[in-house]
Amino acid sequence: MFEQLYLHQKHFSLQLRKDPVEIRLEHLKNLELMIDAHQKDFVEALKNDFAKPEMETLTSEIYPLLIEIRHAQKQLRQWMTAEKVSAPLFLKGTQNFIHYEPRGVCLIIAPWNYPLFLTLGPMISAIAAGNTVVLKPSELASHTSALLARLIKATFAEEHITVVEGGVENTQALLKLPFDHIFFTGSTTVGKIVMEAAAKNLSSVTLELGGKSPTIVDITADLNLAATKIIWAKFLNAGQTCVAPDYLFVQESVYSQFIAALRENLNRIYGKTPEARKANKDFARIISNKHTTRLKEMLEDSLANEGQILYGGDIDVTANFLAPTVIDNVDVHSRLMQEEIFGPILPIMKYKDFSEVIHFINERPKPLALYIYSHSEMNIEQLTRETSSGGLVINDSVIHLANGYLPFGGVGDSGMGNCHGIHGFRTFSHAKGILRQSWGAKLLGMIYPPYTSQKLEI
Ligand code: NAD
Question: Are 134 and 6 in contact, with CB atoms under 8 Å apart?
């Protein structure tokens, strides 16, 4: 179905290998100009997809993209320069380098939740590394997908970058082709399907997956500040963020104080009544009826198991609306604590001893992100050393995504491989080891046959 497209890109990828850095910089500049010129169109498309507030589109999609693309343009010469490495004594006289070559033809499969940042973000790295790209946006954010298809077509040659729209059947058809690299962002379940398909062609893969990101508030935290930051990180994009705090662990002696701070801030930001919350324009909608129903069922399941709503809980499935919701007394066996929530529901649990939290996290799949609000160096150190997660943020949430110098990616169930900055460039490159022997030099004579007994005695 997409064989012709693949073959054209394969042919063009050989041409791209010959291009100097200036040409790659030109492609990046063109992309930057395109994003910059169409900011309003992107804001509009995301509003149509799930009523994403303009401020959130700017701060969590467009500005991070512009930062990433400018960073890539600044650093690209250095990233592309072959890295000189040393050699052991017996290879004395050789010169050794790591050369980052393009992988070739790459497939980028994106989810719907940040339909701009998670399509164009990896694409920046792929272009910087000298690849061709087939970009498959999610069909669920259909306005953004259509806009991307139109703008990419107007900006790049088809054999360089092409957007393939459509549903799962198109993704599955693409996955049959022998791409040199597949960069997938989405759920852990579909990540496994992608990896299985990639194995048939031995395509290398990067999997940016999901999961439950725990957030800890200990006794030493600044409670009001922690509440403000957690509310932003959780309810941004209506909770449909891969690194959103999934659930909270609060030390029991500050629990009621923290809940009071949380409630006060929620009332101030989203309002005190269901009417006020529904009318609030600073809060996005759920992407589809299917997902709203899923969240409603998760909430009902928790309430049936003695969960108690502390804030929100109002739902209108036909309008894809679920208010920012905080719930406590959750049963750890309920769906809310077993599945990734991926919506505006925040379960809160108490803990007594910090080691309980460490144990709880280590008993479960490795999270994509882990957050702690604390001034206790001992707790921070213990969490850093004794748990495994894609990333760790101390006294904030989500913002590690915005630092292009940090690798961003999951571990175990939350994924494999990294993106952003040099880490993204290297993801889309093959690190080729090059050894150059000085002309006429020979290794120690003993390695060449005949293997005489005299040589063995040395
Ligand atoms: P999803 O896995 O349902 O879909 C992702 C992409 O895969 C979409 O383009 C979709 O069309 C395609 N797809 C779906 N089913 C498929 C199948 N059977 N075969 C082939 N392709 C298929 O994920 P989603 O609902 O779009 O996004 C939400 C998930 O993504 C959450 O789990 C979230 O945590 C995760 N996520 C991770 C990151 C990250 O950076 N790690 C970022 C955003 C979202």
Answer: yes
